[in-house]
Amino acid sequence: MYFIDCLVYSAATGKLLQGFRKWYYNACGFNKLGLMRDDTIHEDSDVKEALRRLPENLYNDRMFRIKRALDLSMKQQILPKDMWTKYEEEVHYLEPYLKEVIQERKEREEWSKK
After folding, report:
1. Torsion-angle region of residue 19: left (phi > 0), alpha (psi -120 to 50) or beta?
2. What single string gives the DSSP state of each residue in 16-46?
3. Model's pTM, two decimal places?
4. Are the beta carbons of 94 and 55 closer than 8 angstroms?
């Protein structure tokens, strides 16, 4: 019985955590401007290098979303609700490139220590 209780508890906790994540995603507000989470990452040197490595179509899509968000922000408006970025449709398009850049930087740092 203990195993089944743990599974039920884990499932309930997972649903609760998923619900919280969705609430937080919507509470941040960037989705109301049509932005994705990766569009809001602070651009340090690693992020700039990852952006440089993005395929052109992903980079152009990102720039379109950012320019549209800036325009909406200046007008103090948000997109119609059907155009908001949805939590379920969120794509972490920058993450694989960023992980690669960070890994390469760490390898260079380790190599330079030797």
Report:
1. alpha
2. HHHHHHHHHHHHH-GGGGT--GGGGS---HH
3. 0.80
4. no
Confidence band for 75, pLDDT divided at 50, 70 and 90: very high
Residues in contact with 35: Cβ distance below 8 Å, sequence separation at least 6, in sequence order: 65, 66, 69, 85
Give the C-alpha distances (Å, rounded to integers) separating 69 from 7, 20, 79, 111.
42, 25, 9, 41
Q: Is the Cα torsion angle 79, 83, 68, 43 positive or negative in sign?
A: positive
- State how far the Cα of 33 lies from the Cα of 70, in Å rounded to an integer: 9
CA distances from 79 to 26, 43, 62, 85, 113 (A): 13, 25, 16, 10, 50
pLDDT band, residue 12 (cuts 50/70/90): low
pLDDT value for 10? 61
